[in-house]
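Entry:
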Amino acid sequence: MRYLPGTMVLETSWETPTGWVVVNDVLCIGPWHHKEERSHTHRRSPTNYDADHVLLRTVRCVQGWAEIHLDCEPVFDYGGLAAEWSYTGPGYNEATAGSEGMDLQLKLVTDMNLGFEGPRARARTILREGDVAFAALGWSEHPLPVTYDEADVRLVRTAHYWQEWLKQGSFPDHPWRTHLQRSALTLKGLSYAPTGAMVAAATTSLPETPGGERNWDYRYTWIRDSTFMLWALYTLGFDWEANDFFYFVADLAEAAEAEDGELQIMYGIGGESRLDEQELDHLSGYGGARPVRIGNGAYRQRQHDVWGAVLDSIYLHTRSRDQLPDRLWPIIKRQVAGAQKHWREPDRGIWEVRGEPQHFTSSKLMCWVAADRGARLALLRDDRDCAERWRTVAEEIHADICEHGVDDRGVFTQAYGASALDASLLLMPLVRFLPTDDPRIVATVLAIADELTEDGLVLRYRTGETDDGLAGEEGSFTICSFWLVSALCEIGELGRARALCEKLISHASSLALYAEEIEPRTGRHLGNFPQAFTHLALINAVTHVIRAEHSEQAQDPAATTFFR
């Protein structure tokens, strides 16, 4: 199994007792569809391409012969409603599936002869060497291919779209180049073109603990991802996607201001603000895990990192564009005001704990980021009064963190007055809270590397030391392991950073994808998949290592460089 190089087209080779077949799966990309009328969903600038809303599978027998079976059994409303099939064409090759009370209808077209067995559509045929077949499943008004040749044209067109998109990026000539490219493709695949949003993962309720209750719905977009998303996209040269995502966040901030409310920590990919959480008792998840959840109640939580994420995003965007648009100034003022008003209060923290609110050090850190970036942006606008006031707030938060967030060893801790470590504090050198050679920064990074790891991989925190409101253990957080790579580079520990990055690269799936967590002893991936935040952290970490290697090689004229 592999992706065709530079694409999101999945190719799987199957050996049967009688022959070999190659199967390709793809979500089709087509030309821009809205030529006679405007789209009702697109809020970003249209391109020449649009989603076809067609899942296409092609099969080719390359040796011998094989009996091919098609089974299509869709269910609606999370398994609550079975499909009802009916033919739509003159023969046995086209059908639709729907259910009473559902507006959605699925269309199935294939060159195999379909029959129905209750909620299931089935077909079978024998392919001999050189024979081909296809099946296409659609869920919109856009037409489906009706012959194999049409299906092949769509597959090739989609593959070319991905390869052309990838060529717009800027990737270093390095052995890890393909991992950067696959992460970029994954992030693009997890983005929602009409609004510019990026979904955190494509799945819900894949367990973080096998058989446990740490099962969450990640099919939403988190504001905290914004800084990492923009940094990754700008670094790799995908300015258009960065711009779309940035203005998705700006739209949300303006909408919250118009309703005299505060920015939530997360939204639906269309900007939906209500994400009520439900448990589906009639379903069990992977490996029998329960509960299966849809919606995410964390959207109601107060998490103080949101203001810093927005302000750092605006700062990154402004630096990339060398200008500060007027529409952003009210957003900046409101976000700094939120951080200024609430930074002394406890919250649920970056990890969305469901225990009691605490004075999390990383939450105070991001409030400092909000005030610091706000002051920098005010200077760009030549607003000296705001710059001075916000600089004073930043200095106050900075002093408070340095006084209350450090233990007797000079290590920053998870919460004020606590002794527990927390991987979120690896962000301190990345947001430039203190100089990277400050003893407290170095001590914190090394303490996490030595004491908050299992088999070298980083935990968010130790569940026995943190009241997160949940039972059971969890795996290492891959995001945090990549953060450690970046932080080690920042403090000059390039050897350790490179070794850890190599280990993490070796844990990638066969398709170079990552879930949220990795079980340290087995390398098994846990949690929702693929995880956007993990791939964002990978881009940051790999880029850190490559730049550090380049700097090291530049100091040694005899060294070989991987950069063009």
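The first helix runs from residue 148 to 167.
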